[in-house]
Specification:
globular, mainly alpha
Length: 395
């Protein structure tokens, strides 16, 4: 790792924190708007207004970033996020939430490609990549914790009607991140002539990449089942109030942060694939315990409030570990294009997950929430084994 990376690690982490807050406020918005009599069917598709623009814009963002420069592109994305967060508290109509999430999703696509590109251009070996990605992405989990805790406090206070004004804090953080980046001299990747983006993608396609993208889709599919919908599960199924639902959910993010920080500090001692499989096995074990409690104890067993967050310890390392293993195999000149594919399949996994969860909630099938997640984790297990087999053959 070069010394330059350590110099801009703070703004990188702050940027991930900001994007985490705006992306993962979905759970709070779903909770608040459902109380305003917005149906779960509509709220389920709200996620798509965030995720589909991410998927659509990502491939085209590669050329934009190449022409504009990584630093300028990232500052532009943060500026737009800051302005949007400043406007949101003063708008009441539901359609604006759709527009707001579409803009946020577009900015996130640009921001994530820029950040991954910066990291890839400074690090070569996969274990150092895994360490750095876990460290930077750990701030993403802190964003979830901060947004749930902060908004939970605001919603439960006597100022609950002004909960949307919490977004002003995101505008302030965006301003700080822009200031930090503006003072840094960041080495830009070498500019190359960009061909047809679809032809460039076709050159990357192989069985290893296909199984990798399937794994990424599935991991985010499971993560989103927790991040956006766990507060509503706590409130509707376990019958706790909005404040406690958000606070309990924030502990999932806290455990996820701990999981990524632990991984960042110990990953260089282990095989990435073995560590990854161990984490998956522990997730399955905890989910089996949860299902056992849920179907043998009372339906509203409060034990589940404390067991679900534990999953974050083992779920959170999966995404950065599998990303770092794959991205280390990609040529630096293709890093931005490859990252755009990660962003696309991550956003699709998030969107599909939210639609499925909305159907689960709308049809009052909350008893099967943990069973549904166990099925998705089992699918990740199978696809991951196929991926590692292809990866071993390539090495």
């Amino acid at each position: 790792m070069t010394t330059k990376l350590s110099k801009f690690s703070l703004p990188l982490k702050l940027t991930f924190l900001i994007f985490s807050m705006v992306l993962n406020c979905m759970g709070i918005i779903i909770l608040q708007l459902s109380e305003a009599k917005i149906t779960y069917d509509k709220l389920g598709f709200l996620e798509s207004f965030k995720d589909l623009p991410i998927a659509f814009i990502s491939l085209f963002a590669v050329n934009f970033i190449s022409r504009t420069g990584t630093k300028k592109s990232l500052i532009l994305a943060l500026t737009v996020v800051g302005i949007c967060s400043l406007i949101l508290p003063f708008v009441e109509v539901f359609w604006f939430y759709k527009l707001w999430f579409a803009i946020i999703g577009t900015c996130f696509a640009i921001g994530k490609i820029c950040i991954f590109g910066m990291i890839r251009n400074n690090i070569s070996d996969e274990k150092s990549l895994a360490k750095t990605m876990n460290s930077v992405e750990a701030s993403f989990m802190i964003g979830i914790f901060v947004v749930n805790t902060g908004f939970g406090w605001l919603i439960s206070s006597r100022f609950s009607e002004f909960w949307k004004f919490g977004f002003l804090s995101i505008s302030v953080l965006s301003g700080i991140a822009i200031f930090l980046f503006s003072r840094l001299k960041i080495a830009e990747p070498e500019k190359t002539e960009q061909g047809n983006v679809f032809k460039e993608v076709s050159k990357l396609i192989n069985p290893l990449l296909i199984t990798f993208l399937a794994v990424i889709f599935s991991i985010v599919f499971v993560e989103q089942s927790f991040n956006s919908w766990l507060p509503s599960f706590y409130k509707n199924h376990l019958k706790v109030n909005s404040f406690f639902a958000l606070q309990a959910s924030s502990f999932l993010a806290l455990f996820s942060y701990i999981g990524r920080m632990i991984t960042a500090n110990i990953i260089q001692r282990f095989s990435l694939s073995k560590y990854y499989i161990l984490c998956l096995s522990l997730i399955v074990m905890v989910l089996i315990i949860i299902i056992g409690i849920q179907f043998t104890d009372a339906d509203d067993s409060r034990t589940l409030l404390f067991l679900f967050p534990v999953i974050g310890l083992f779920l959170s390392p999966l995404y950065p570990v599998i990303n770092s293993k794959m991205i280390a195999m990609i040529d630096k000149s293709k890093a931005n294009l490859f990252t755009s594919l990660i962003v696309i399949f991550s956003s699709l996994g998030s969107s599909v997950s939210s639609i499925v969860m909305a159907l689960l909630f709308a049809n009052r099938m909350l008893n099967f929430y943990s069973v549904y997640i166990l099925g998705a984790v089992s699918l990740i297990f199978i696809i991951s084994l196929i991926y590692f087999r292809f990866a071993d053959q390539k090495n």
